[in-house]
Specification:
about 425 residues; five-stranded mixed β-sheet; about 60% helix
């Protein structure tokens, strides 16, 4: 795990080179323009900033556009005066707080727009401020408030355009045509529809990010479990052999030096093999994605396993010839046999074990038996070894059974598929 932490520490969030929100899609809330990126520290800093640039751009657009609209509506609407420009500036100024106070900004911009229209000033970009304010409220999750602000604006315009226009400037004004009224209503509906579409899309992006994070966490957990199983299987088997041979060497050191020398030779070979396999596992951690330098062990190395067991005082009889297997299944089969024999060495009083390999249709049956009896409360193995064997089998779509036989021995029976299904 230390190696994995060393790999991750110097890299940026998201394990890539660029910002995580750029790699994984659009921004979320509280980042630039009100949306969250992937870096919490950056998002907190941006959440405290006011959107000056976009608001300034909108202000210029509204002021210049309203000036052109006033020239186009000379004689129909009142000319722009300082009060009209002040209303336009107030409406645009409210947009500075559209991220912090979206409800207040939605109702504020709608109210300013109503006052502007009630004063008889020309139609035009004034509606942009209300549109942006309501858009921000919808996307921020205040849907009802935004709908209410849009509804208030439309109803207010309806009253002024068809009933109150006699008492409102400019003098001699006529009722607005229903065609224009339908256009205003359509504009309001379009604002709400676009806002809802963006809100739904943002929520979908947030769910996708969460699902990717969960999938990455699941992959990391699965990788940790795989590494733990590999290290356990390698070290448990080799250390069991070393432990047995060390006991033999100590017992015969004075009476039979040659036999003690043989035990020490076995210890050296077992430790060297264990170091090699542990180094191979660690190499995959240091250079993720690279192919291992040595092939993963499989049932073709079963003779070596038998020799190691014999060196530990366990005679192993193998029946059956393993078929050609995919690498993943071949490795799992080898590790299951290795762990089963390790449990016999550690937990069984028997000095004889039988391994039977039997292809059965589209599956491979592995049966490992010993004659017992157990030498402790956990005879047969009841810790991480059996759990690791079950995890290997289940991950490939197979099954495994382990338990005491009626005649006093212990049996491990694994059934593995000959092919891994693609959806796995």
């Amino acid at each position: 795990m230390t190696v994995m932490e060393e790999q991750r520490t110097p890299r940026s969030p998201g394990w890539g080179g660029g910002p995580p929100w750029w790699r994984h899609g659009p921004l979320g809330r509280t980042g630039p323009q009100g949306w969250t990126g992937g870096d919490p520290g950056d998002s907190e800093g941006r959440a405290g900033r006011l959107p000056w640039r976009s608001t300034l751009l909108l202000t210029v657009l509204v002021l210049v556009g309203s000036q052109f609209a006033a020239h186009a509506q000379v004689g129909d609407r009142a000319a722009l005066d300082p009060f009209a420009r002040a209303l336009l500036l107030v409406g645009c100024g409210l947009l500075l707080w559209r991220q912090r106070r979206p409800v207040l900004v939605a109702f504020g911009t709608a109210t300013v727009t109503l006052v502007y229209l009630a004063a008889g000033y020309p139609y035009g970009p004034v509606f942009v401020t209300a549109a942006v304010g309501c858009f921000g409220a919808v996307v921020a999750g205040h849907r009802r408030a935004a709908w209410a602000a849009i509804g208030m604006l439309w109803l207010g315009h309806l009253l002024m355009a068809h009933w109150l226009y006699h008492w409102l400037p400019p003098a001699g004004d006529r009722a607005v045509s229903w065609t224009r009224e339908i256009g205003v209503a359509t504009w309001g509906v379009a604002i709400v529809a676009v806002s809802e579409l963006v809100r739904v899309r943002r929520e979908q992006w947030a769910r996708d990010r969460a699902e990717r994070a969960q999938a990455a966490a699941r992959r990391a957990d699965a990788e940790r479990l795989r590494i733990a199983r590999e290290l356990h299987d390698v070290l448990a088997h080799s250390i069991s052999v070393i432990n047995v041979q060390a006991g033999v060497g100590l017992a015969l050191l004075d009476s039979d030096p040659e036999q003690a020398r043989s035990a020490l030779t076995t210890i050296k070979a077992a430790s060297k093999e264990a170091l090699g396999e542990v180094r191979q596992v660690l190499e995959t951690l240091r250079t993720p994605g690279d192919a291992p330098r040595a092939p993963a062990p499989g049932l073709d190395r079963l003779p070596e396993l038998v020799e190691q067991a014999a060196a530990a005082g366990l005679a192993v009889e193998v029946r059956g010839t393993p078929p050609k297997l995919p690498p993943g299944i071949d490795l799992a089969a080898f590790r299951i046999v290795q762990e089963a024999l390790t449990n016999v060495v550690r937990h069984s009083g028997s000095r004889h074990a039988r391994v039977r390999i039997e292809p059965a249709g589209d599956a491979l049956r592995l049966r490992i038996d010993d004659d017992g009896p157990g030498t402790g409360a956990d005879a047969g193995g009841s810790g991480h070894g059996l759990a690791g064997m079950r995890e290997r089998a289940v991950a490939l779509g197979g099954t495994i059974e382990a338990g005491a036989r009626d005649d006093g021995g212990f049996r491990v029976l694994a059934v593995l598929p000959l092919q891994v299904k693609e959806d796995r």
